[in-house]
Amino acid sequence: MAPDESPEAPVDRAGFLLSRVGTAVQVGFKEVLAGWDLRPLHFLVLSALGARSGSSQQDLCRTLRIDSGNMVALLDTLEARGYARRAPDARDRRRHVVSITPVGRTTLAQIARAVEEYDAHFFTPLDAGERRQLVGLLAKLYASTTEARGGGWAVSTVMDLTDP
To answer: CA-CA distance, 19 to 64, in Å (whole number)?
Structure first.
């Protein structure tokens, strides 16, 4: 390439565009969660607890595909903020059951509203039909990834979107 030539941006490449849009969404999503001093994995764990409170730590690790060491740190933060509570399982004291607290449920609802507002703003260029189509196409792509084939809570939620 001659020194005065500039490379063309690969704007006609789906992977490149998905990468750039993904980066923009990730930055915005982290900014939303920063209002609660949380990270995306905190939101994932809190959402899982909101859907299925009373899970064991091991079940959460397996289902959400989060390393047990990372899960301990995530739960430490959620527990310190009063969003979750760990307690020995009444039937097997070697296991710990994790539950969402009333404060956690309220906070999860607030975060969910903020995420919905962010999504509505970010996806303003698309009409409702285009948004549904985009979600369906992204879910279909995600279903083919190694992560998705490993299963888990988040994956099963996405897979529900791919069923007609």
So the answer is: 23
